[in-house]
Write a structure and sequence with these properties.
heterodimer, A: about 90 residues, 3 helices, 3 strands, flat, B: about 475 residues, alpha+beta, Arc Repressor Mutant, subunit A, nine-stranded mixed beta sheet, three-stranded antiparallel beta sheet, 15 helices, about 20% strand, elongated
């Protein structure tokens, strides 16, 4: 099951990535290599195994409803592409 | 051609936990931007979400209250989409295995009871808030809301009119408030509603193409948006055109819905189980505990109001349709134990005042105790029923005690026969023609005499006593 160039472009669009033509070629090949590698898992017979969402049989890892101090605002904004009056600033979408 | 509307609602309710769903940040509304954030809700690499148990309990309570089947095991999934209100690039939600499914809510609309199916209730995290600059092509992002716990309640496409949709939405909000798990504030966005609506020719069984409506933050707007959309879709169908499946925003100022065009039209969320979170398993004992701890819900309370207070079904339904109103009624009955009279006052005088002010019972300046005292004053004969309405208006305006108002304004009913008799004699002396009429058998003029006495005493004469006095004097 090979990934097409169109599918790579579609996924790039969903991730809001603008790819150069050369990158489309490169990523299509690389993604296909990864898929082919993972494809090996299909050889395993899982007919007797219940589908699971998690590999270890652990359930209900909860925390209490308690407020904890989070990040200082300046620290939170440290990696912001832009910041103004305590907000992250991003290109306008709509 | 006759068309029928098919409506389904998706309700999002923010849960009243102190901390967020996957981290310890506070959920307080209105804090300065980005002051309630941490590595987890900002989606920083290496951080891990841990589920807030209370959020699960709140969601389960709603599931129990709406007769859902609760899945023994449920799983969190990543809903992938790129938008600046979502720092991780995905929203943690539930997909294949939601917390609960197959519930229902009974509503009353158009004089009949209808059962509206609930497809599912699942837990998810809220997204951040974007403020678009009016002057520059930028948006400001506040992540305080990111990670606030939400339940999404998805209905079956069971509603046929805007009225039914509003009644269903009101019913759900009422239950959320009864359970105390959501503040129901639609203006602040802690309760939100999206609607799916399509039309089909009457008698046809397949559904037509639907539009999704967003941005309706009041019951009135939900109704208006659905009414508008029915008109719009009908016009298109009658003109032989096709409905485009799209998301449309309700524009309050224009009173219409408009296509959102483009934004997230590709619904390709690529859901998959979130490997950071282990599945939730609901043990029977846990569920039993929650069930035992559920408060009395609207239907049960309405039943009890009929039995315990002897109220008609209609009164019980109106009073329990709002938990705060039901509480108000019961507090008032404690002060003045004549339930039907209390109910009448609340349903007529109090609700009318609230309606003119477009406010909820929480904004009522008259305490239930004060209203009880007012009714007791009427009962004792201290003031007449018609003056009580004036006193009530005064209580509303000033928040004063009814006894204080009656005393201050000298409104006590005159039940002193001597004083009334003197006044009555003056009236008879001044109206010989009416006296003659009465004696000639026209007993209807009695009303005129009593009216005159009322005028003379500024409405304070005890009407029954006034009647007796005139009868005696005229014989």
């Amino acid at each position: 099951m090979a990934l097409t160039k169109e599918e790579v472009l579609h996924v790039a669009q969903l991730a809001r990535l603008a790819l150069e033509p050369g990158e489309v070629e490169l990523f299509t090949r690389q993604l296909n290599d990864i898929l082919a590698y993972v494809e090996k898992l299909q050889e395993l017979d899982t007919s007797g195994v219940t589908p699971m969402a998690h590999v270890i049989p652990v359930f209900n890892a909860f925390r209490e409803d308690e407020v904890k101090t989070g990040l200082d605002r300046d620290a939170a904004l440290d990696n912001a592409p832009g910041r103004e009056e305590g907000s992250f600033v991003v290109p306008r979408i709509i | 051609m006759e068309y029928e509307a098919i409506i389904g609602l998706e309700i999002h309710a923010e849960l009243l936990t102190a901390s967020k769903i996957f981290c310890g940040c506070a959920t307080t509304f209105g804090a300065p931007p980005n002051t309630q954030v941490c590595e987890v809700c900002l989606g920083m690499p290496g951080s891990l979400p841990v589920l807030n148990q209370k959020a699960v309990e709140f969601a389960l309570k709603m599931a129990l209250a709406t007769d859902c089947r609760i899945n023994e095991e449920s799983v969190f999934a990543r809903k992938n989409y790129f938008y600046p209100d979502l720092p991780k690039g995905y929203q943690i939600s539930q997909y294949e295995l939601p917390l609960a499914e197959h519930g229902h809510l009974d509503i009353r609309a158009g004089g009949e009871t209808r059962r509206i199916g609930i497809t599912r209730i699942h837990l998810e995290e809220d997204a951040g808030k974007l403020i678009h600059s009016e002057h520059r092509p930028v948006s400001f992002v506040d992540f305080n809301r990111t990670g606030v716990p939400l339940i999404e309640i998805v209905s079956e496409p069971d509603m046929r009119t805007p009225e039914e949709a509003v009644e269903y939405f009101k019913g759900l909000r009422n239950i959320l408030l009864y359970l105390g798990i959501c503040d129901g504030n639609m203006e602040e966005g802690s309760l939100r509603c999206d609607a799916n609506i399509s039309l089909r020719p009457m008698g046809q069984s397949e559904f037509g193409t639907k539009a999704e409506l967003k941005n309706m933050n009041s019951f009135r707007f939900v109704k208006q948006a659905l009414e508008y959309e029915i008109k719009r879709q009908r016009a298109l169908l009658e003109a032989g055109k096709e409905i485009v499946q799209e998301t449309r925003l309700w524009d309050t100022a224009q009173g219409q819905t408009a296509s959102m065009r483009g934004k997230e039209e590709t619904h390709d969320y690529r859901y998959f189980p979130d490997p950071d979170l282990v599945p939730v398993r609901i043990e029977a004992a846990w569920l039993e505990d929650l069930k035992a701890g559920l408060p009395e819900l609207p239907t049960a309370k309405g039943q009890r109001f009929q039995e315990q207070y002897g109220l008609p079904a209609y009164d019980a339904e109106v009073l329990t349709g709002d938990k705060a109103l039901a509480d108000y009624f019961e507090a008032c009955v404690k002060e003045f134990p004549q339930p039907k009279q209390v109910s009448n006052w609340i349903m007529v005088e109090l609700l009318r005042e609230l309606k003119t002010q477009d406010a909820g019972i929480a904004a009522c300046p008259v305490t239930p105790g004060a209203l009880g005292k007012l009714l007791a004053l009427v009962e004792k004969g201290t003031i007449s029923g018609s003056l009580a309405k004036k006193v009530f208006e005064e209580m509303w305006a000033t928040g004063k005690d009814p006894e204080a108002i009656v005393k201050e304004k000298g409104l006590e009913q005159i039940s002193d026969a001597g004083a009334l008799e003197a006044a009555a004699q003056e009236i008879l002396a001044a109206h010989p023609k009416e006296v003659a009429d009465y004696q000639a058998g026209k007993t209807k003029v009695m009303g005129f005499f009593v009216g005159q006495l009322m005028r003379k005493t500024k409405g304070q004469a005890n009407p029954q006593l006034a009647n007796e006095i005139f009868q005696r004097l005229l014989e």
